[in-house]
Amino acid sequence: MSFNRVGWLMFVCCLGITGCTTTPAQNNATLANLVVVEPQAPDSRFQLELAKLTEIMAQEREQLDAEAMGQLLYRRGSLYDALGLTTLARIDFNRALDYQPRLADAYNYLGIHYTQVGQFDYAYEAFESVLELEPEHPYAYLNRGVAAYYDNRFDLAADDFSRYFETDPSDPYRAIWRYLAAVELTPEAAQQNLAKARLEHSNEAWAWHVVDLYLGATSEQDFLTAYATKGLAADETLTERMCEAYFYLGKLKQLEGEWDTAAVYFRLALTTNVYMFLEHRYAGIEMDWSQQQANAEKVK
Questions:
Q1: 63-75: string of b/e by CB count within 10 Å (b at 16+)?
Q2: What is the mean pLDDT of the chain?
Q3: Virtual CA dihedral for 228, 149, 135, 244, nearest 10 degrees?
Q4: Looking at residues 242-247, what average pLDDT do you find?
Q5: CA 20 to 30 Å from 229, out of 58, 208, 241, 289?
Q6: Phi, psi of 20 (to 5 degrees)
Q7: Is 9 a residue whose pLDDT tops 60?
Q8: How far is the C-alpha of 167 from the C-alpha of 183, rounded, in Å?
């Protein structure tokens, strides 16, 4: 959605913390417009590479030095991860570190996996190792921020997300995650900073429409029908796009207190099977939390 500068400045000045009121009929109308996509099929190229790597490690084990073995185990672990085989991936990442203790990317993956299962102390330890080995690692602050976010340490999450945002303010996902942590601390300031990011840094990246949705500048129905399915990049599938769209719709519904609807969106994100995406990794946590909150409200 395009906005002129004057309109956006007026919009920023008028921002508040209250959300739009929706009725069950409105929710039903929105859900009727859902785009149901086919789950992403396991990539045959990944499976063939897995088979080749396993063969190499079995047949040439004696000839491989520690560095080569560590790299092969790390690569196989990343392929297992991409196919959703997280236990096998975790085994290989740990084995890779036995051969190459300074492999920062292996620690980064382990930190993500520990976050997914709620072992936050181990996650923080893994991300600290990443930053010690590679202070400029491109994703360590994001992933440590996510760990802090799901550990309900929103102040720490906000710090890491802010640092991550500042390295590339034109990336809408960075603005979104900074907002998600900040809104738990200072809702009004979080909304204003999100609008400022939209005004100053937006580009053609589709996820700026998620920002518009959070700012109330576009409706949930328009987001689904006019933006989420349009303008796919050459290397992007509709399934991948909808994994993201459903996750961030779920987060919006949480903020609006619509827990049942949020759970539906997170369940849809899970059904995409886009295992590599952050949004898929944490959709299960979000779905369970949303359902717990929905059930708690029903017994009040």
A1: eeeeeebbbbbbe
A2: 90
A3: -10
A4: 98
A5: 289
A6: -75, 145
A7: no
A8: 21
How is residue 172 written in tokens? Answer: 């809408």
- 12 and 196 Cβ atoms separated by less than 8 Å: yes
**Of 21, 9, 5, which is closest to residue 219 (Cα–Cα)?**
21
Tokens of 81: 């991860």
Please, what sign has the CA dihedral across residues 283, 289, 290, 291?
Answer: positive
The ranges assigned to domains in the chain are: 43-100, 233-300
Please check the confidence at residue 11 and state whether its pLDDT lies above 60.
no
165 or 62: whose pLDDT is higher?
165
- Whether the CB-CB separation of 194 and 202 falls below 8 Å is answered with no
CA distance 298 to 40: 35
Tens of pLDDT, residue by residue over 148-199, are: 999 999 999 999 999 999 999 999 999 999 999 999 999 999 999 999 999 9
What is the rounded distance in angstroms from the CA atom of residue 4 to the CA atom of residue 285?
A: 38
Query: How far is Cα 2 from Cα 105, in angstroms, rounded to an integer?
Result: 38
Axis crossing angle, helix 154-166 with helix 140-150, rounded to the nearest 10: 160
Amino acid at site 146: V
Nearest to 254 by CA among 285, 289, 300, 227: 289
Q: Which of 117, 170, 168, 102 is nearest to 141 (CA)?
A: 168
Structure tokens at 237: 């599938």
Instruction: Record the tokens describing residue 254, joined without a space.
Output: 């949480």
> What type of residue sits at position 88?
L
What CA–CA distance (Å, rounded) separates 56 from 115?
32
